[in-house]
Amino acid sequence: MNSSKVSGPAVRIENLDKYYGTFHALRKVNLSVERGERIVVCGPSGSGKSTMIRCINRLEEHNGGRITVLGTELDDDVANIDGIRREVGMVFQHFNLFPHMTVLDNCMIAPMIVRKLPRAEAEATARRYLEKVRIPEQAMKFPGQLSGGQQQRVAIARALCMQPQIMLFDEPTSALDPEMISEVLDVMVTLAADGMTMICVTHEMGFARRVADRVVFMDGGEIVEEAPPEEFFTSCRNERTRQFLSQVLGH
Amino acid sequence: MEMVVVAPPAPGKIEDLKRRFFATPLQALLSLISLAVMAFIAWKLLNWAVFSAVFTTSGGPEACQAAAGACWSVIAARWRIILFGLYPFDEQWRSALACVTVVVMTVLSCLPAFWTGRRIALVWGAGTALYYVLMKGGVLGLPQVGEEAWGGLALTLFIFVTTCLIGFPLAICLALLRRSELPWISRTTALIIDGVRSLPLISILFTFAIVLPFALPQWLVGDKLYRVILGSALFFSAYQAEIVRGGMQGVPAGQEEAAMALGMSYWQRIGRILLPQAMRNALPATINQFVISFKETSLVVIVGFFEILASGNAAYGTGEWRFAYVEVYAFIAFIYFVFVFSLSRYGAFLERRMSVGER
After folding, report:
1. Where are the alpha helices (DSSP H) in B111-197?
2. Which of A110, A236, B187, B238 is most open to solvent, judged by the fewest CB atoms within 10 Å of its CB?
């Protein structure tokens, strides 16, 4: 997939519908993300924000509408799905590191078996990104021996080792102890400064203010409001957004 | 991370024993009585097994019957029947070599250095081929010996190893099929597993040995031994499949999602992420299943195979050694113990090795 040469937005979501049984989780969602853009998605729990970004790399199958990632439309074609997953990195709330492998192997396995990189090259890449997330010294440890913040940084490095063009973050700091949140956010800020296309589901409004190009607010499976952070935090129009912000920022 | 750990002061060995067993006069009395009983039993056993036992065949069965202790001369006289069954006497060195082959093959494949697809395949391919050539003969100037004459330890090991060799991959397939998203696949697999599990092993062996030849075309029937092995492998796989499935359920869903998000294909996710973790979870139950299967090989006697237990029966059952059955069974029990105990220790080693990095 030579998607880097394809022009157009990184992600385009049109009229996305998603049901869990009879529950309508996403209702006609439309979102377009340009290359290099940083989007923060927020909203109350159950609002569909995680579901939406999980549709982008097809961890969830959508029931209606179109999702186009780097010029390729997501459909039932497994080759398309695998191709998109190679270009889209994801960081999860619960890290989901592979506990039976060392930190280094966690970072090397996908480049080696998916991208077919030679071992030496994969290891060099892995060490470079572990350096970037500031834990090169933990390379030979197992995930279970690291703190939550360290594990999440390894998870970011693992995703970056695939050299993705887009990074998805699904509440990356929600499972962390307060003192570890900033070390993860710092890494994400660095990443944003490097020009990575990022879609982050998070409640870290400080982060949104600092790095987001646009903040998207979702509620009840719909995008209620989207605006640049300045505008979003100071003059949001919608009552639901205002209520949410007062709850998140209120103390 | 370097810290000086100071352990609480530990009581001495003697102190500890005193506290545990001689805290009160009554406790001391009970401890002494138990000790005396244990010493008495130990002495009786030792006396029977060693001091009053007969070890040589020179006196024949009569010398044994005169002695008060164990008659180990029956083993000295009949060990070849126990280990090799009805295998032709002059060719029994082949059966011995075949046993060694199976043991070496098993030990090699237990070593982490051999855990790559190619090496394992090489070890098992070469091992089973060597076993077959040694036992069956008919080539390289070795006289041919039919499967019906195979017996003793060589047969027990062969049935056990081939059962696992066929049953284990089959179990993994069944476990994977059972968690298929297509309901008709998962339900059919569940039906097969539950069906096989609800039948006694004896009836399966009997069906495969005796009934199947009537149902199958002639060219598909094969020797009874291989049908019996297939039956026992099927039985093994039904149980092992559920063990593997249990292990898979212990792997969080996030693991497969993470693998998917990295672009891994189905087989990469299964092979690199799901199964390694599932097998770690399933290890204790898996060793259990291996141990049970090893001992269940003795059931093949009902379809006419002389594995080690049946060969043992034959060893004392003929004429002059009829009285010495305890010694024969003790010897066979010892052989079972050596194999099963090694298996258990290997399981413990694997558990230690696999728990690396677990909190």
Report:
1. 117-136, 152-178, 183-197
2. B187
3-state helix, strand, coil in chain B (%, to 5): 80, 0, 20
Confidence of residue B47 (pLDDT cuts 50, 70, 90): confident
pLDDT (tens digit per residue) in B252-293? 999 999 999 999 999 999 999 999 899 888 888 998 999 999
The answer to whether position B67 is within a domain reads: no
Q: Once rounded to an integer, what is the mean pLDDT over residues A205-216?
A: 92
CATH number, domain containing residue B196: 1.10.3720.10
Partner A contacted by B260 (CB < 8 A): yes
Contacts of B273 in chain A (CB under 8 A): 98
pTM: 0.84
DSSP state of B16: H
Do B357 and A86 lie within an 8 Å CB cutoff? no
Q: Residue A39: pLDDT above 70?
A: yes
Give me the domain span that covers residue B188.
Answer: 72-348
Residue B24: inside a domain = no
Contact B357 A100 (CB under 8 A): yes
Dump the DSSP string for B287-353.
HHHHHHHHHHGGGGGGGT-EEHHHHHHHHHHSGGGGGGHHHHHHHHHHHHHHHHHHHHHHHHHHHHH
Q: Which residue in the block uniquely carries the two structure tokens 């989901």?
A: A96
User: Could you give phi then psi for residue A57, rounded to 5 degrees?
Assistant: -110, 20
Tally of domains in chain B: 1
CB contact under 8 A, A142 and B276: no
Interface list for chain A against chain B, based on CB atoms closer than 8 Å:
57, 59, 82-83, 85-86, 88-90, 92, 94, 96-100, 102, 109-110, 113-114, 141-145, 155, 158-159, 162
Average pLDDT value over all residues in chain A: 91
pLDDT tens per residue, range A87-107: 999 999 999 999 999 999 999
> Residue A228 carries which side chain, given as an amino acid letter?
P
> Would you say residue B66 lies in a domain?
no
- Band of pLDDT at residue B121, cut at 50, 70 and 90: confident
Q: Is residue B288 part of a domain?
A: yes
